Amino acid sequence: MQLFSQTLHPERYHGRNKTPPFFEGWYFKLVDTSETHRFAIIPGVSLNEGGEGPHAFVQILDGASGLTAYHQYELDDFWAAQDAFDITIGPNRFSTHHIALDIAQGPLSVQGDVQFTNVTGWPVTPTSPGIMGWYAWVPFMECYHGVLSFDHTIQGTLRIDGMPSDFSGGRGYIEKDWGKAFPSAWVWQQTNHFETPGVCLTASIAMIPWIGQTFRGFIVGLWHNGILYRFATYTGARTEQLTITDEQVRWIVTDRLYRLEMLSQRSEGGELRGPSIADMRRRVPETLNALVQVRLTTRHEGKILFEGTGRNAGLEVAGELEKLLADSPG
C-alpha cells in the first residue's frame, strides 16, 4: 500500500524505511522578471554512509555568477509530512506552493519566502504515474524522476547575501529525483522562458541499469498551450540524433506523429554536488545560462506546431558521455 501511494504521489518524500544507498532531492528554479536573478535551490537528504554520512542539505546555485553553496544539516533536522509534499530542513520549509528560507551563514546565505501560483505538474495516472511512465512502478530503478511544476508565477522577495532580490512576477519550475544514485552519464535540460509565456521544455537522456545490463533511456516533455507532447522510451519514441560538442548539444526525437528538434548552446555555470552510491560528493556541472532552440513539427507533413528559443535554460552534460553517444545515429 505504501508503494502504491508513493508512486502515485512523486512529489512526496519517498525515504521512509529506506536503507543506504538512498538520496532524495527537490529542485526549485527561480527567475525574476528582469532575468538577472536566476537561482536553483535544492533541498534534499542523503542516507549514505560515505563522505559526511547521513545528512540533510540545502544546495544553491547562482545562475548569474556560477557560484554554488552546499549547506549541510543533521539528519534529525529533516522532517517530511506523510500525506503531502511538505518538508523542513532546519529552519527552512519547502512545498509545491511555497518555500521559506533562513540560511544565515556561509556563502549564498538566503532569507525570505516566496509563493507559487498556477502550479501544473506532469499528469499522474495509475498506468502512467508522472514523467517516468510505467517505469515508476519498477521497484529496482537506480534513479526516479518527477516534474512537479512546468511553469508557475512567483511572488515574494529573498535576501541573498544580504541583498534583496524581488522575484514577484517571475517564473519558476519544480522537479525532483530520488533513488540510489545519479546515472553513469546523462544530459538534462529545462527552460520555461520562451517568447510565448507558459511554454516549458524538460528533457533528459541517460544510461539506465536494467537487470544486469544498461540501455539509453530518455524522457522529453514539451508543455505548450495546455498540451503535453511526450517523447520517451516507454512511449515508443526514438532518438534520431544526439551530438555533443563543447559548444552545443543537438538532440532530435521522433515518434509516429511528431518530430522535436532541440539545439542547446552550452554556457559556463557552476558545480553542484550529486549522489553516488557512496556519498554526495559527485561533481555535477550545471548552468542556468544556456539557450535552447526548439522546433516541434508533424512528422509526415512537416507542419510547424511550435518554434522558439528558451532562455535561462538549465543544462547538465555529465558522466561518461561516450556511453550515451555510442548508440547514437547522429
Largest sheet: 12 strands, antiparallel
If helices are DSSP runs of H or I spanning 4 or more residues, what is the number of helices? 2
E-strand count: 22
Order of helices and strands: HEEEEEEEEEEEEEEEEEEEEEEH
Q: Provide the helix percentage.
A: under 10%
Structural class: mainly beta
Shape: globular
Q: What is the gyration radius calculated from CA atoms?
A: 19 Å
Strand fraction band? over 45%
Euclidean distance between termini CA atoms: 44 Å
Number of structurally distinct domains: 1
- Low-pLDDT ranges: none
**Average pLDDT level:** 96
Brief write-up:
The chain has 330 residues and is mainly beta. Helix content is 4%, strand content 56%.
Write a structural description.
A hairpin with a 3-residue loop joins strand 17 and strand 18. 43% of the residues are buried. The N and C termini lie far apart (44 Å). The chain is mostly beta strands and 330 residues long. The protein has helices spanning 2-7, 321-326, and strands at residues 23-31, 38-46, 55-62, 68-73, 78-80, 86-89, 92-95, 98-103, 110-117, 143-160, 163-166, 171-179, 185-191, 200-210, 213-224, 227-232, 238-244, 248-254, 258-265, 270-274, 282-298, 304-319. Strands 1, 2, 3, 4, 5, 6, 7, 8, 9, 10, 11 and 12 form a 12-stranded antiparallel beta sheet that branches. Strands 13, 14, 15, 16, 17, 18, 19, 20, 21 and 22 form a 10-stranded antiparallel beta sheet that branches. The mean pLDDT is 96. It has one domain (2-326). The chain contains 2 helices and 22 strands.
